[in-house]
Amino acid sequence: MRTAYSVETVRAAERELMARLPEGALMQRAAAGLAVACTELLGRVYGSRVVLLVGSGDNGGDALYAGARLARRGAGVAAVLLSPERAHQGGLGALRAAGGRVSDEASRDIARADLVVDGIVGIGGRGGLRPEAARLARAAWESAPVVAVDLPSGVDADSGEVRGEAVRADATVTFGAYKPGLLIDPARERAGALRLVDIGLTLPGDAGMEALQHADVAELLPRPVPESDKYRRGVVGVVAGSARYPGAAVLAVAGALRGGAGAVRYVGPAADAVLARFPETLVHAGPPDKAGRVQAWVIGPGIGEESDALEDVLASEVPVLVDADGLRFLTPRRVAERTAATLLTPHAGEAAALLGCGREDVEAARLTSVRELAARYGATVLLKGSTTLIAEADGPVRVNPTGTSWLATAGSGDVLSGVTGSLLAAGLTARDAGSAGAYLHGLAARRAAGPAGAPILASEVAGHLADAWREVTD
């Protein structure tokens, strides 16, 4: 599992370690890891041209010491000092002693660079870059590969928000621990490939953010045993579709069946369309409480203005996943009254409606938004989007590392609701079901899109769920 920690937690761990180490040792560890990463990106160090964008903080010192190491190996290293009077003096002295120099013409040096190192602002920075730093960052991106020190300058380490101009890096070398902002858009897309350098920090067991990996998801996925039957494996009820959107029902049922459900009970007006594709589905005209035994409900995809079924489902004593149209009829009070788990799965526009703000506000502050939704509704919230986040009122937020931008296609959310609902019915907690469901859904989409990426259909994503399952568990 990949974990991320807040700036405050990382700073505390750094102070504790520095108290036990010789002065400057921690910065040397960071600089050594940074220099190795730069060497790998350059391929050939001797004769290469490296430019360091150096701010006034420790990130500037890390960049200067790493530049000194590269200069000793034959690289031509030039440091652009954004605050010359506040530059790290030890690092600057080391760079000069190794043959590096302070740039007297930043634009020229950046234009000729084989690699640019961003050491402008550290993890404590807030807000966007100042005009001169922003100009240099734009020039660097247009000229050469960019490596960010700890995180791209100008992004918020704790939230992933970008309030103004920020560095866009090809790779980020981060020290001691991942920071939440490196895993969440819009900052994530600016970080490029991530590399974690172990500098010896002792961190608490409870992280602020988690990103599950194959092994973590494999432990969560339910598997049948010899005594299993369809009820032991989990029966999920699906209330989806309408005369206008029958395909939403088909896709949600497809996700549920491919997601491992022992059986799917479908309730709604699209029974003929569902049975034509999946004759194993158990169908019922409704209402949901008359449809038969289920271990979880999925409601919302394509139901239009039908709200009576939602009240019926919310009154049940089993976990409920509410998506799409179903979200429009929710109130925090009604969700809080439930005794069983409730999982809400909005995209940014739906989350904005629930929060009473603009979609752009949610997209700019995804972490804040998902936490606020979880607290306001007393539910588990899966916020879909460029980075899918799963949050509860307390505890670490989970971020899904799988997926592809090709998932931005009609019906993909219906498939996600189905597979996640099947995991709820199998007995996973709402948090685990949301995490594992999003993970499988993302892997299936990658398989459908192919290595080079290509347009995909939601039905194709559903068709690859079994392959994703095998990829995780093999």
Automatic annotation (TrEMBL):
Binding-site residues, K(+): 59, 118, 153
Residues in YjeF N-terminal domain copies: 10-207
Entry EC no(s): 4.2.1.136, 5.1.99.6
Superkingdom, taxonomy of origin: Bacteria
Xref: Pfam families: Carb_kinase, YjeF_N
Sequence positions that bind (6S)-NADPHX: 58-62, 122-128, 150, 248, 302, 347, 414
Keywords: ATP-binding, Isomerase, Lyase, Metal-binding, Multifunctional enzyme, NAD, NADP, Nucleotide-binding, Potassium
Details of cofactor binding: Binds 1 potassium ion per subunit.
Reactions it catalyzes: (6S)-NADPHX + ADP = AMP + phosphate + NADPH + H(+); (6S)-NADHX + ADP = AMP + phosphate + NADH + H(+); (6R)-NADPHX = (6S)-NADPHX; (6R)-NADHX = (6S)-NADHX
Reported cofactor(s): K(+); Mg(2+)
Binding site for AMP: 384-388, 413
Record-linked InterPro entries: CARKD (IPR000631), Nnr (IPR030677), Ribokinase-like (IPR029056), YjeF_N_dom (IPR004443), YjeF_N_dom_sf (IPR036652)
Domain YjeF C-terminal positions: 213-472
NADP as UniProt keyword: yes
Role, per record: Catalyzes the dehydration of the S-form of NAD(P)HX at the expense of ADP, which is converted to AMP. Together with NAD(P)HX epimerase, which catalyzes the epimerization of the S- and R-forms, the enzyme allows the repair of both epimers of NAD(P)HX, a damaged form of NAD(P)H that is a result of enzymatic or heat-dependent hydration. Catalyzes the epimerization of the S- and R-forms of NAD(P)HX, a damaged form of NAD(P)H that is a result of enzymatic or heat-dependent hydration. This is a prerequisite for the S-specific NAD(P)H-hydrate dehydratase to allow the repair of both epimers of NAD(P)HX.
Sequence similarity: Belongs to the NnrE/AIBP family.
Subunit structure: Homotetramer.
NCBIfam families named in the record: yjeF_cterm, yjeF_nterm
Protein name per its UniProtKB record: Bifunctional NAD(P)H-hydrate repair enzyme
Organism: Streptomyces decoyicus
